[in-house]
Design goal:
The complex is a heterodimer of chains A (379) and B (422). Chain A is α/β, with parallel strands linked by helices and 379 residues long. Chain A contains nine helices and 14 strands. In chain A, strands 1-2-5-3-10-13-11-12 form an eight-stranded mixed β-sheet, sandwiched between helices. In chain A, strands 4-14 form a two-stranded antiparallel ribbon. Chain A is globular, with a radius of gyration of 21 Å. Chain B is mainly alpha-helical. In chain B, α8 packs parallel to α21, α9 packs across α18 and α18 runs antiparallel to α19. Chain B is globular and about 70 Å long. Classes of the chains: A alpha/beta (379), B mainly alpha (422). Chains A and B meet through α1, β9 and α7 of A and α3, α4, α9, α15 and α16 of B.
Chain lengths: 379, 422
């Protein structure tokens, strides 16, 4: 055997070993994390129950239904989307916390913790993200996946050079074709991402969802942050909610849904359905461009010296100091926002109330941490 | 260990392995990435190394199929015959000819948003014509490399602008005229700078006499050129009718290569494909290595260190930071530079007209395709022309690149005034 053939075989063997190790690591991301059925959960369905074409696909995902005993067809309802972007962990954890703790006394709460189920199964190349993060509970560790902003290319590939939004014709960068929050109202015969959007839109239409809340996080350098974005139809509800949150010392801005940016929940769900859509953003350093070392600690604490420096330089849109923005604070903002939306709705619509108990307040979450609000995995 | 020290170690290992040991750039990038991970306390993170390289899977597929297509078209006799036909038709108006050739070379980049696609397709068609007309090889390579990046930025498709706009939720709408104003004057200037000053000294009668038209006469122009025509038609169809045509670049190039087998001289398809992949392999390896390098930079915090320091300059020096840091980071990837630095710089310039500023930033990002070690546009241009190494090509591109940066900065500084004129 010639010398270069031996070298080639050695390199081939090294490549195969690397592929095996990396492959096993990538495959492990396909295992769903544990979500406990809380005391308020009356039913768990799949998104494919509203759009059967999703059945058996990587886009199909659990829909947790928390129905009050008094709920009927005319009752008010709220849909909460977590995990639209699985690299925005507070949005996912807040949705899980709702499933495991909320107890509705009036109306119905629908929660989709993994709105883009496929995006939980991989990480974005060149982002160096951790695959998981752990929250300690009194009874053991809860492990959550830190996924990608977009659908797994293994499930939807290749991207076009330019993504054309189906209903408006708007052009965006090709990789946005896998971004769930650019695909609404969705397309029944479209890509996997568009089908998931379509399924969520179908759920909203068929269940006549009153309020839809899409939970997100944003990098601290992104202008729309610590904010609620509302469709014009939802603006009265959102503006009262923001005032209510400010009264709880939760600083939050209110942004109108831009008319010319299409495919997002707060625009399309308001235009194409009767729901009142709002989107909430909290500051997350682990998805930002200015971040330093990218690891689980950054996901959980938000402590990052480069963001502190950037804040001093006036480059950020949120306050940033050495304490970071811990996940308790970010989840707390989302949970408080959801509770306040329900409260404001009920205040203005006492004949169709939407009430749930069992949720921690913002101050309680900051005080106790997240762990005691999450159930330990069943043995 | 501080991010600065990790960065120095990564660059140091790359330089030592690449320049001192003279190992391939791809292996040097891999070893630099591993060194960075070790210095950052991450061990040898195999998952991260593999994941980083996946960022370029689509690019690798496009480059591979584009190379196969060009080799097939060349082997069929189409490439040589196209040069003959163009020179015969336009040799009396050389200034117009070089400008037209610049636009032709830009065209695939305008349609696909990829400088590599432009250089490897229309660039490869235009290069022999320019060589036959008496332009030195390095100058020709620089001509088509510049055409590649100007095509990548010219409308209708400009991926860096889409990436930058996407970072602040700005849709890719209203970019056409600013991008035309940014690119077309530079295209004309580049055509004259790289081409006309040589062509005007050339004796066209001698060039015409030297042309071999045997293949062209035997098969006819339409038949011989039909693979290129088909590829261009399919590219335009993908863009113009995205609801009905969504073949993607790799499949379009594969269809073109398949057609070339029937339109001219017969050739061994497998050999042509093998040669093409062999030619592309070093660049494909660099892309894989760069993917690993950038993943480790992000993982260890080096990326944040670079971005925040680029933003740390006083306002007066912000434009200098843009001019220097964006093309430098483009050494890793022009698209990566658009995302990592283009977005923060646009955020720092929100007081300007956002569309014109994003368009101008995208032009500076494109210069990353001239920046070693990736230097995709320059490497492929040198390869297409048949020059060993791309150093001579890069030298020819230095002054025009400075002009490009200056032009883009003028657009940023006067974006509001330019908006007022539109």
């Amino acid at each position: 055997m010639k010398k270069h053939h031996i070298s080639a075989l050695i390199f081939l063997a090294i490549a195969l070993v690397a592929a095996g190790i990396a492959g096993a690591s990538f495959l492990s991301m396909r295992e769903n994390e544990y979500i406990a059925k809380g005391p308020g959960v009356s039913e768990v369905k799949m998104l494919s129950d509203w759009f059967p074409a999703l059945a058996g696909s990587p886009g199909d995902t659990e829909v947790y239904i928390l129905r009050s005993e008094s709920s009927n067809d005319d009752a008010a309802s709220m849909l909460v989307l977590g995990g639209t972007h699985p690299n925005e962990p507070a949005a996912f954890v807040a949705a899980v916390l709702l499933v495991e703790n909320a107890q509705p006394s009036a109306g119905t709460l629908y929660v989709i913790p993994r709105a883009n189920n496929s995006a939980f199964t991989h990480n974005d190349p060149q982002e160096g993200s951790p695959q998981r993060f752990t929250i300690k509970t009194p009874d053991g560790d809860r492990v959550f996946r830190f996924g990608s902003r977009a659908t797994n290319p293994v499930h939807q590939w290749p991207d076009p050079d330019v993504y054309i939004h189906a209903s408006s014709g708007q052009s965006l960068s090709g990789n946005e074709t896998r971004n769930l929050n650019r695909g609404y109202p969705g397309k029944a015969d479209g890509t996997l991402t568009e089908k998931v959007c379509y399924g969520i839109t179908e759920l909203i239409k068929k269940e006549a969802i009153t309020i839809t809340v899409d939970l997100h996080e944003a990098s601290p350098e992104y202008p729309v942050n610590m904010a609620m974005v509302a469709h014009p139809n939802a603006m009265p509800l959102a503006s009262e909610t923001v005032i209510g949150l400010e009264m709880q010392d939760i600083a939050i801005g209110l942004e109108p849904s831009p008319v010319n940016l299409r495919g997002l929940t707060h625009r399309e769900l308001g235009d194409f359905t009767d729901t009142l859509p709002v989107l909430m953003e909290t500051p997350n350093a682990s998805q930002g461009r200015l971040r330093g070392k990218t690891d689980e600690a950054l996901v959980l604490t938000g402590i990052d010296p480069w963001y502190v420096k950037a804040e001093k330089l006036g480059r950020l849109y949120v306050p940033y100091d050495g304490n970071g923005h811990p996940i308790e604070e970010r989840v707390g903002r989302h949970v408080a926002g959801i509770a306040e939306l329900a409260f404001t709705w009920t205040l203005n619509n006492p004949e169709r109330p939407l009430e749930f108990s069992g949720l921690p307040s913002y101050a309680e979450l900051l005080d106790t941490g997240l762990g005691i609000w999450l159930k330990a995995p069943e043995q | 260990m501080s991010e600065l020290l990790i960065f120095i170690i990564m660059v140091g290992v790359f330089a030592a392995v690449s320049f001192a040991l003279k190992w391939p750039v791809s292996i040097s990038m891999l070893l630099a990435a591993i060194a960075g991970a070790l210095a950052g306390g991450e061990g040898i993170p195999i998952r991260h190394l593999v994941e980083g390289s996946f960022g370029y899977v689509d690019t690798i597929l496009t480059i591979s199929t584009a190379m196969i297509f060009m080799n097939a078209f060349k082997e069929s006799g189409g490439l040589e015959s196209l040069s003959t036909a163009v020179i015969r038709r336009f040799h009396k108006i050389p200034a117009l000819l070089v400008i037209l050739l610049m636009l032709v070379a830009m065209f695939p980049g305008m349609i696909t948003g990829s400088s590599s696609a432009a250089v490897l397709t229309a660039g490869a068609v235009v290069a022999p014509i320019l060589v036959l007309m008496g332009i030195p090889a390095a100058q020709v390579a620089a001509f088509i490399a510049m055409a590649g990046i100007l095509g990548m930025i010219a409308p209708p498709v400009n991926v860096p602008a889409m990436i930058i706009g996407g970072g602040i939720d700005m849709p890719y709408v209203g970019f056409e005229i600013p991008l035309l104003l940014l690119t077309m004057p530079l295209a004309i200037l580049s055509a004259l700078w790289f081409g006309y000053r040589y062509i005007k000294k050339t004796d066209m009668k001698k060039v015409l006499a030297a042309l071999d038209s045997t293949t062209l006469d035997k098969y006819g122009a339409f038949r011989l050129f039909s693979p290129v025509i088909l590829v261009l038609v399919l590219m335009v169809a993908d863009r113009a009718f995205p609801r009905y045509s969504n073949l993607g670049m790799p499949l379009i190039f594969t269809i073109g290569a398949f057609l070339a087998f029937f339109t001219g001289k017969r050739f061994n398809v497998l050999n042509a494909a093998k040669l093409a992949v062999e030619q592309a392999l070093p660049v494909l390896g660099i892309l894989v290595g760069v993917g690993m390098f950038i993943q480790i930079m992000t993982l260890t915090g080096v990326r944040g260190f670079i971005v925040v320091n680029a933003l740390s300059v006083p306002p007066a020096l912000l434009y200098l930071a843009i001019a220097v840091s964006i093309p430098l980071f483009g050494a890793v990837s022009a698209f990566g530079s658009a995302s990592v630095l283009g977005v923060p710089f646009l955020l720092a310039l929100l007081q300007q007209d956002q569309i014109i500023t994003a368009a101008a930033l995208s032009l500076i990002c494109a210069l990353g395709d001239f920046m070693p070690p990736t230097a995709l546009s320059a490497i492929f241009a040198a390869q297409v022309v048949g020059i060993k190494g791309y150093g001579s090509t890069l030298k020819k591109l230095i002054i025009p690149s400075l002009v490009v940066v200056a032009w883009a900065l003028i657009f940023i500084i006067f974006s509001k005034q330019i908006r007022g004129m539109l």
